[in-house]
Amino acid sequence: MFAQFTQVARWCLLLLLCIPVLAGLVGVAFPALGYFPAIGANSFSLDVFRTLFALDDIWQMVWLSIFTGVGSTLLAMAGAFLLLASFYQSNWLNKIQGLLSPFLVFPHAAAAIALLFVFSPSGIFARITALGTNTVIPGSGEALFPYDSGGLSILLALSLKELPFILLMALSVMSQPLVKSKLSGYIKVGTALGYSPVATFFKLVMPTVFTQIRFPILAVLVFATSNVEIPLILGGNNPSTLAVAIMHWFNHIDLSMRLLASSAAVLQVAVSGLALMLLLGVERIVIYAGRKRLAKGNRRFFDRLVQCAAYSIVALYIAMIGAVVYSVLMYSIAKQWYYPNLLPEGATLLHWRTALETLATPLSNSLILGILVSTSALGLVLFTLESELLKPAGINANRAFSISLFLPLLVPGVAFLYGLVWFQQLVLQDAVWFHTYIAHMVYVVPYVFLSMAVAYRKFDIRYAMVAQSLGKTPWQVFYHIKLPSLFSAIMVAWALGLAISFSQYLPTLLASGGTIATITTEAVASVSGSSTRLTAVFVIIQAIMPLVGFVMAWYLPAALVKPSNKLRTSEKKSRAVLHGA
Q: Residue 338: what pLDDT?
């Protein structure tokens, strides 16, 4: 009975990931082809695409999307592998992982706003360089960051946000028992043949790791080419990236603009597909060049340059973290902060009182959505992983499941979310919370699965075999043995799901039609319409919310385990007393 239930959960997970995406793509394809009965468009044609391609800035939008997406992904990959090459055999790697982990759960909107405080013409770095001089704030259009027309500020922000994710994905692969033993053998062979640690990594370790994280990297690329929050906050508006233009067209008061937005959403799928092809092409070139260099037998691989670059990346993140924390905290309590002073003119808690009064409803909405989505996603993932052991699927079925798992991450959100909203208006139109819940689940489930799968598959199956030999049912083994043993990993996966739900901007905005306000939607809105000091308070609250979840994940398992440890210790002491020890 339990095995059948896990099979049902597996199918539910597949349907949850596939149906919204496929329905959304169909829902956006019809208006793109001119069929939109709500405004009287009842025939199919390609006139909408002709109108789209006739726009003056359309190809600049396409170029910006490809440039920022591919460029930031390549930069983040290079940074992650440079860090691994320099520190993969060092104790510093754990410290670097701890340093970069907060960036993984930091919402994209909050990260963009924080970078705005640090790198803007009046940011903390500009204040430091202008200290003691008569420098004035550069005028509009004179500064490189932000709002530059070339997209460099978007590229920088995306790469800084993507690097920790790629690094942690690589570390999770390298920690798997089979992969770890395989890589240990490679490292021993490379050392025996006289290769330096850096050369050993790039020539022996990296090819194995990269094949394991190819799908996550492709998902990062698709996200980078279609992201809305970071280009909306840091990018230029004339022109903007294609994803930002699509959002503006969909939200236009003129409903006929939905047709143009739908055709642009289809174009966004093509743009992301082209970006994927470009990245795969770069991969082929690197593989070809790597084989040529491997055949030469060089025992070094630019070791000094790689190590200098790695230390520079760590220094950049340390400086940036310090600058972000200082800037946000100072802005949140500042009465006035004149340029180029490093300290504000007086302190006040007025902004905190205003924010807490304003954000009571968005905060409760975020917590309700996050807890519901993360808890249900975790339960679905746990039962799905258990079904892999109770009723293993075939090779083709596993491959199809892997593709389905990454489907929401490999299809641009702006492409299927708008089509999904169109379907939601036809079915259960008034169930706004349910639609928002489904939109969040589509994005949360893949990450929870990736987080939980590593720990679940590393679980020593011999414990389950012993329990089954003692007559325990699969449910009893799952509930009494696996869940307590994996409680720490379960809490981390739950906290990750919570953080991802908190950070969702576009799914919340579209699925709810703007009727459900969350911390993230309010923070993005505050950038254009509120004071800088109030926005700083929003950023702090956005950072604290996922952090609380991870603090619970780190300390709650230890707190729950301590009483049992104390009980065992007291039992041992009592036995010693009884035996006259």
A: 82
